[in-house]
Structure formats: C-alpha cells, structure tokens
Amino acid sequence: MPKDLDMKLTIVPPVNYVSVNGEQRHVDCAKFASLVGIHAIHWHDTRGHIEYVKPYGANPENPIPNEQITSIDKFKEVIDAWGVAAAPAPTGRRE
Q1: Rounded average pLDDT over 11-31
Q2: pTM exceeding the 0.85 threshold for the entire prediction
C-alpha cells in the first residue's frame, strides 16, 4: 500500500470503484461500515474530502457539504482490499 503522503485515492462506494494512484480496481464496498452514506472520497497526498449521499427526499436547495479530511486511516481496510483485488486485464495486445 502506498503511503498517504504519496497517494492519490478515489473511492466511489455506489459503483464499487477504488483507484489508487490511477490504478482502478473493483472492490465490494458494501462490506465496509466506514463507507455507509458516502458518495465519494477523494484524497491527494496530505488532504482530501468526503462527498456524502444526499438522503432520499432531501431538499435540493440544502446540499450536504463536503467534509474536508486530513487522514485516510479510517479507510485503510478499503485500501487493503484494493491491494488484494485483481487488477483489470489488459485491453491491448502486446506483440
């Protein structure tokens, strides 16, 4: 796992998308309690933010603000799962 200070991380739980330093992998995000209610997490080196899912029926004029974060320790288990997930198969053919 890359260190926080040298990492670009994106997690989008609704579509099971996790990308670390540009390498995307499918991770079953439903099994992580830390991701409940989160639409996306974006991290770059030393800081990032969390975008929350707007509850059904919520007033569109009253958005849920993003939460600024300075640590991704809470999401270590998701990053670990990315580390053991299969990398996508190459799409091009090598000759």
Answers
A1: 96
A2: no
